[in-house]
Amino acid sequence: MLTHLLFTDLAGRLRKVTLRIDGDPLLLEGLETIVDGSSLLGFLRVEESDLLVKPVSSRPIVTGYVEGKHFISGLYKDKNTRYNKDPRFVAERLVEYLKEVELEARVGVELEFYIVESVESRLTPVSQSLNVKPIGEADYPQSSLWFVKTYDSPGEDKVGKLLGRVLAELERNELYFSKVHRENGPRGQVEVSTPAGTPIETADFVQHFKYMARVVGGREGFRPVFLAKPFPDDYGSGMHVHVSLWQGASNIFEEEGKLSDEALYFIGGLLEHARSLAAFTNPTVNSYRRLVEGFEAPVYVSWGLGNRTTAIRVPTQHQGRVEYRPPDPTSNPYLSISAIIMAGLDGIRKKISPSEPTSRNLFEEAAGWGTGGRVLPRSLEEALEELEADNDYLQPVFDRELLESYIELKKREAKAFRSYPTPVDYLFYLEY
């Protein structure tokens, strides 16, 4: 029997180790293997590189596209000691921390991404190429962005049918979505929403979904694209995070059908730490190609009631939850969800009152409004500088060593990518 152990690295990529074992792994006792921690960026040095991978979820995931069973797994320093930089361990520590203060977080996400036929790319010091082939869509120019397919039935075209095969594979494992529809991007953008779950359950779903989309796509002839900004003239993809906090059966964000003081303080914490949060919620150079004016992405540190132009939205029909809109699908869900909740908890602890909610359309009025408002970071390097200066609110859930390694890893990434000229440089600057 093939058994696949899935674990997440510091950057958020899902890794896999496959074991061949005798019989059916119904009993997980003793199911483990060693991996080289020095080959995973940001983890261990080569002279002390052994890490154990062991299942941390007893629920096996199966698919008709891959032989064997998959298990979400954790990283261990030894048989009984979790590795402090394991991203899933951060989410586990968050849940335990919430229990200590007699709270429970319920989290759901709206995951946006594109389904295309193929992606071909090439990068050398003297040669660059990119060819993305959409599925059954014209290559609409920027002037035609009004032609969108939002809320078209995703089951009635090829994009929807391919998405349906991914969702069917998840449902056979009792991993259910709550809503699915076409999004604004005409080149095959879709959105899948999850039901509310624990931070661990929701982050696990995101990782399972991305893995299954790639597995099914490899067999069915399509490619999921989770980049925050895949096309220069099209809408970016976000991963909006919805949070509510509970004490037993009571939602502490709601009081007589309106926002409670705790909810307002939670929003205050998100506003206070939004710029440093970006290092987790928008963790790639590509992330900041989405956070620009003109494509319905949140740019300003702001909040509103039912206002989708702000960074924080409180749904008017469900005022018992808070939606944080800046995150994108390239974020490590264990780290980004945990950081969002810790920022909000800091607001509750310090009773940080938010500014007044805005009812203005910040997409249309951005230029004028932005002169008096805080903006989200414009680059990954700027976000990392903010995280270096503002991270106390993440303790005790985020280990100090993890923060230092994450910042160092992402700084190296930003510097390396910044050094590469692109065809845009040659098109516009060659004659200077």
Automatic annotation (TrEMBL):
Name of the protein in its database record: Glutamine synthetase, type I
InterPro entries given in the database record: Gln_synt_N_sf, Gln_synth/guanido_kin_cat_dom, Gln_synth_cat_dom
Cross-referenced PROSITE patterns: GS_CATALYTIC (PS51987)
Pfam families on file: Gln-synt_C
Keyword Ligase: yes
GO BP of this protein: glutamine biosynthetic process
Domain GS catalytic: 87-432
Organism whose genome encodes this protein: Thermogladius calderae (strain DSM 22663 / VKM B-2946 / 1633)
